[in-house]
Amino acid sequence: MDNADLVLQELSESGVLRLTLNDNSRRNALSEAMLKRLGDLMVSTANDPAVRVIVLAAVGPAFCAGHDLKEMTAGRQADDGGREYFTHVMKTCSGVMQSIVNNPKPVIAEVAGVATAAGCQLVASCDLAYAAETAKFGTPGVHIGLFCSTPMVALSRNVSNKHAMEMLLTGDVLSPQRAAEMGLINRVVSAEELSNFTMQTAEKMAAKSSMTLAVGKQAFYKQRTMSLEDAYDYASQVMVENMLKHDAEEGIQAFIEKRSANWQDK
Questions:
Q1: Which DSSP category does 30 fall into?
Q2: Whole-model pTM above 0.90?
């Protein structure tokens, strides 16, 4: 399969870009080729004004089964037992996950199937996640002697410590209802309604000022690592700069005048 075909693209008139993982034969595993394709797309969409919101979906019964273990096993054949190769793969994967967080556009995971290990990490790295009743979530690395250490980073930033550790230490697969209770996903929707629901949510965001969403997304993730005092200082500065933007002035004036705002995304 050509690398371009690994992720299908569909852009709506309103600027919602659907990226669909399309490697069903490998359960949409994060192979080297898949990681490169996803990474390239995150870079290219970051500054594309035509793209306002990104939806990440998948074909087949698996949203993403994590790393390609056959590729990883083949990497062991190197003289160093695979150390250099494993380091490269983990660095690449970590870079892709960070590119989702750092992308100024909202990224929504639409999960209809199984999301395990690095696939669960992929879901946790997205800003929002909606799942069908057919979805499953887990970090089952302990079953094969491999603790899900990199998925742990995204997971522990979405759910409580004890919920994260329970998933990581037991390797149990969770129902979407349980994943929603824990905060890993936003909501469970029927399989028949999932795509429409996700797209409707994305369309709501696409109708907003993309400048405002970008400012807010960056600020949200940056303040989380700060102390309370530093976070308020930082967020106050962000609010001041935001207030000085055209779209904030226009939005407030439109609200006062009871009319629709004319966003210029600046």
A1: B
A2: yes
Residues of the chain with CATH 3.90.226.10: 3-206
From first CA to last CA, the distance across the chain in angstroms is 40
Contacts of 16 (CB under 8 A, 6+ apart): 52, 53, 54, 55, 199, 202, 203, 206
* 210-256 carries CATH number 1.25.40: no
The pLDDT, as a whole number, for residue 184 is 98
Burial of 136 (0-12, 13-18, 19+ CB in 10 A): buried
- What confidence tens digit (pLDDT) does each residue in 54-104 have? 999 999 999 999 999 999 999 999 999 999 999 999 999 999 999 999 999
Homologous superfamily of 3-206: 2-enoyl-CoA Hydratase; Chain A, domain 1 (3.90.226.10)
